[in-house]
Specification:
eight-stranded mixed beta sheet; alpha+beta; about 30% helix
């Protein structure tokens, strides 16, 4: 465990083995209760085995927000390009290769929102990427149907592509890049 900061009674830290069950629970609860589509193996393999996805590779990381022993928020970093489909092929070309980090799983349990935890987790993840000289870019995408998501990301990142199609039943994705400010 590497403590990064405190936000009120919460610790922001780089995850260790002891945090994985709690992190997995936050992620799965988000898929089922917030997004409504549940676990999808084609999208969520990292969640089932977060140790392999985030702790084992040296350029990957998982960050958690914890109150005591309870993990209440997550953010992951992986050297993984977006996939096409569903995303445009030019995005894969722009963010492919091993010089781009992608931000994943920025989730906070509902009872712990509005405390600055997501922003603190993203700051920790951004610092991790900026400190890794093999990364040039930090990419993410979000579904703008999630309340507050678009506004949150616009406060931290630069829009790269708005992929919304206007159909409220499909993902309404906007792609962003977070400046590394080295």
């Amino acid at each position: 465990m590497k403590l990064i900061s405190h936000v009120g009674p919460y610790e922001i830290r780089q995850a260790s083995e002891r945090d994985l069950d709690g992190a997995r629970s936050v992620m799965l609860d988000t898929f089922y209760h917030e997004f409504g589509y549940g676990y999808r193996p084609e999208w969520h393999a990292d969640v089932i085995d977060p140790g392999t996805a985030y702790l084992a590779p040296p350029r990957h990381a998982l960050f958690v927000a914890a109150k005591g022993d309870e993990v209440v928020g997550t953010t992951g970093v992986r050297a993984t390009a977006p996939s096409s489909p569903p995303h445009p092929a030019w995005l894969v070309e722009r963010y492919g290769g091993d010089r781009t980090a992608q931000l994943f799983r920025v989730y906070i349990r509902p009872d712990h929102r509005r405390c600055g935890l997501a922003r603190a987790l993203v700051r920790a993840a951004t610092a991790f990427v900026a400190d890794e000289p093999s990364y040039d870019k930090l990419y993410l995408h979000t579904d703008t149907r999630v309340p507050g998501a678009e506004e949150f990301w616009r406060s931290l990142a630069v829009e790269v592509h708005d992929d919304r199609d206007g159909n409220p039943l499909t993902f309404q994705t906007v792609h962003f890049e977070i400046p590394l400010n080295r």
